[in-house]
User: Which sequence fits this backbone?
């Protein structure tokens, strides 16, 4: 099923509010489609052109809408974690429940070794208006 981008964006905005993301982050996404990323303990930054390209490729391939990115460095490589609204509306209620508990279904792009990129569940906490990935 293909869900309209407007409906996905409405859902994304609701999720961003649930996550207590910094109000400017929500406003930029709502008004200008600007994505932010959390990095270095929840500090917020705009995406680079290269990161925007990764997001665009993911959205096109998966018919999804990314609403926030978490950028971090691990022993497995440099990671971009995409929080997104899927095309599976029947799963949105479960996605929201997970967010309330500090978990999210996400896509993790490994910039150092693309073969390690994958969908999965992550844990996070809120800090400084952004998010910190904890697992």
Assistant:
């Amino acid at each position: 099923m293909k869900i309209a981008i407007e409906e996905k964006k409405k859902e994304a905005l609701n999720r961003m509010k649930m996550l207590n993301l910094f109000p400017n982050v929500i406003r930029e996404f709502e008004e200008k489609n600007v994505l932010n990323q959390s990095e270095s303990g929840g500090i917020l930054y705009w995406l680079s052109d290269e990161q925007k390209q990764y997001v665009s490729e993911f959205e096109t391939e998966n018919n999804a809408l990314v609403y926030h990115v978490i950028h971090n460095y691990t022993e497995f490589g440099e990671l971009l974690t995409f929080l997104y609204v899927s095309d599976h509306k029947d799963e949105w209620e479960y996605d929201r429940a997970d967010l309330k508990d500090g978990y999210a279904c996400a896509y993790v792009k490994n910039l150092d070794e693309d073969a390690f990129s994958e969908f999965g569940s992550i844990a996070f906490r809120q800090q400084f208006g952004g998010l910190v990935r904890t697992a």
Q: What stands out?
A: The longest strand covers residues 65-74. The longest helix spans residues 5-18. The two ends are 31 Å apart (CA to CA).
